[in-house]
Amino acid sequence: xxxxxxxxxxxxxxxxxxxxxxxxxxxxxxxxxxxxxxxxxxxxxxxxxxxxxxxxxxxxxxxxxxxxxxxxxxxxxxxxxxxxxxxxxxxxxxxxxxxxxxxxxxxxxxxxxxxxxxxxxxxxxxxxxxxxxxxxxxxxxxxxxxxxxxxxxxxxxxxxxxxxxxxxxxxxxxxxxxxxxxxxxxxxxxxxxxxxxxxxxxxxxxxxxxxxxxxxxxxxxxxxxxxxxxxxxxxxxxxxxxxxxxxxxxxxxxxxxxxxxxxxxxxxxxxxxxxxxxxxxxxxxxxxxxxxxxxxxxxxxxxxxxxxxxxxxxxxxxxxxxxxxxxxxxxxxxxxxxxxxxxxxxxxxxxxxxxxxxxxxxxxxxxxxxxxxxxxxxxxxxxxxxxxxxxxxxxxxxxxxxxxxxxxxxxxxxxxxxxxxxxxxxxxxxxxxxxxxxxxxxxxxxxxxxxxxxxxxxxxxxxxxxxxxxxxxxxxxxxxxxxxx
Length: 485
Fold this sequence. Notes:
Blueprint: H1 5-13, H2 20-41, H3 44-54, H4 62-68, H5 74-84, H6 101-124, H7 129-150, H8 153-157, H9 162-174, H10 189-201, H11 206-212, H12 214-221, H13 223-238, H14 244-257, H15 259-269, H16 273-301, H17 305-315, H18 319-329, H19 331-345, H20 347-363, H21 373-379, H22 383-401, H23 403-435, H24 439-443, H25 450-477, H26 479-484
Helix pairs in contact: 2-6, 2-10, 2-22, 2-23, 5-23, 6-7, 7-9, 7-23, 9-23, 10-22, 10-23, 11-19, 12-19, 12-25, 13-14, 13-25, 14-15, 14-16, 14-20, 14-25, 15-16, 15-20, 16-18, 17-18, 17-19, 17-25, 18-19, 20-21, 22-23
């Protein structure tokens, strides 16, 4: 029986000044700093001058300028290749066709980069680097295999991405040949995913949120808490789910923004690894179905693009799936869907704080215990501060640079790189979750099918309320904003 990572980390952190959360902030900051230095600060002068001249010509646009100009430096191209070419390419029937000399070269390069990055992290946390590196080779191999399966054409069309395959492959390994002791030091799924979530913060831009305005904020920030609280109540009072931590983790995963919310919530309420795996697995299955079914239904009934995009953005869990589903409907739907999901992502910090307060004051409170700010701070997942900090810094840079330069250097270069890197961190995290999970322990979480019922009922409520709120806000209360889109 494996101890839950939260409990293990809680015991270990007693003897550490650098917790996993702080190390995740450090590692995420290093990658974001590299992105800003290479993709923004270094080319800023030349790009600014070129854009200023080009903007005087008729028909100028940032997209056209990026298509016609080589503005990313050699170092930037190398980093992009490291993040992209290290993954197997797309394939249909021959998996060997997904590999090339570049894949091998940059795959080794990425492995070396991760060993150096996480090796430094283990040193900071006062752990032994050697055992981590030996185990990490296997975790990296699982992530690589997950990318391979996720890039198979039929699987891609069905929405079966690398995230789901990483968990499945990890589960197959851990429940067939077992997990040798040498692998355990590298099963740091919390460190991997928290670092990735800090990079996600760079993609949550205030300016983009304001572009949609109040309708998007109402859709994301009013419906989401209602669905979250109602689903948690339903799980406790109607389904009578025994574990409150499982209940709130599934509710947050389904109602807020999928895996990212599940990680933050699980950390705040000290959910077990098996409970987190259950929530993530349900999210991925429902997301794969909804990203195909929802656009098909919207098209079949002739729903307007803005309404369809808002519906997708508020209900489909994963950001990548939201973008893919929105793209089926058109550019306007894609923009609305992605922006509303971005607004929802802002709730991660509020969610983590709210769960930490509630669990401290209500769930874990004993008769003689006293709720203090220190106790809430101890429970609060510190990596969320890194997420919010990244969002603030990149949002400020976006506003300072102005729309054109921001689209080119922030969105088109820096965030493009950090987003690709985030995919790697998520693949490592999900592979690690699968590798450290036992089917017997996981099976107990699905007793009576209650988690599945909870997710299905909660998502049904989410679909109804989001569609109603989107229609009211975009077409009745703020029709002028809708016309402008």
